[in-house]
Amino acid sequence: MAVSSSLLFTSLLLLLTFSDSSVQVIGLGIGINYGQIGNNLPSPIRVSYLLRSLNISRVKLYDADPNVLVAFSNTNVDFIIGLGNEFLQNMTDPIKAQNWVQQRVQPYLSRTRITCITVGNEVFKYNDHQQWSNLLPAMQTVYNTLADLGLDKQVSVTTAHSLDILSVSFPPSAAAFRQDLGEYLHGILNFHAQVKSPFLINAYPYFAYKDNPNEVPLDYVLFQPNQGTMDPFTNLKYDNMLYAQVDAVYYAIKAMGHTDIEVRVSETGWPSKGDENEVGATPENAGLYNGNLLKRIEQRQGTPAKPNVPIDIYVFALFNENLKSGPASERNYGLFYPDGTPVYNIGVQGYLPELIYSSPSINNEFLFCSLLILAMACLIFS
Question: How far, in Å, CA of 181 to CA of 121, rounded?
Fold first, then answer.
């Protein structure tokens, strides 16, 4: 449909307004978890501007929302997309897996950089043995589908685990996976080694502190100056819990015979608010945790056991999500409120454009292009 020049001009004038606050760009190679369990969240196209104003170029989703994938077209943002646990059984069927990839992945690859698919999330956290059995076959079937379509070099396949999979986590060098998960994790580790995909963990030092605040030093979990802890078997010193957790997973993997699998942190964060019994859930602690974490990532630090491998992290989460179930902390992990203002100060401020006008006669592609043109003009002439 043709669009008149006057309509274009009017749309460009009315489409956006920007915050007049200054912008400090993150640009540290950090990833962000973009959850959408809320009824007051900004549209994906607005979120695309916020993240680019922050120079965040890696995003992790919990689904394969086409609205998000379209909104980030031609933005050079790398996406991890997710298959929920409810899809595991279907993904063991090659035909259903092929249909999903062809409908939810392949159509977007020419314009949106999808680099990874997580098949399931924290599957072993729940006592569903059928899901445990379905996980590896589902991962294999999705990978084989990508390979058949010639996409396996472009899109990797993995799953994300909670730290509940460990029976021993400290000292890191003595870490081990739970015995009841041995048969399942053995196959999953073989899969990772074969296809060269990362082992993902959701690691939250906050939980350790909340459950035992009298014994876990707050400075140790917040990356603040502290005496640290020593692994008596390796003599490696740890000045923060997150690095100890990551190395524990490396050592547990090594104990199962693998030394060539990279561990990445698919989630970590700290809540800014919680229920009365959720000790430590404050904006001050959240700001220290995430602010200090950003500094570590900027320095491209490795862990004591892997000093030459910069730790790869996706922070949880982009926004506070008001419809999440569970304790109050679950709804308060966001770096930003839904209106784009920071929940606490970690030295960053981004632009969340406000949509004022749109016409049903203007399609989404035109709307996106108009937004892009105006945003570029604002940056050039400001």
Answer: 15
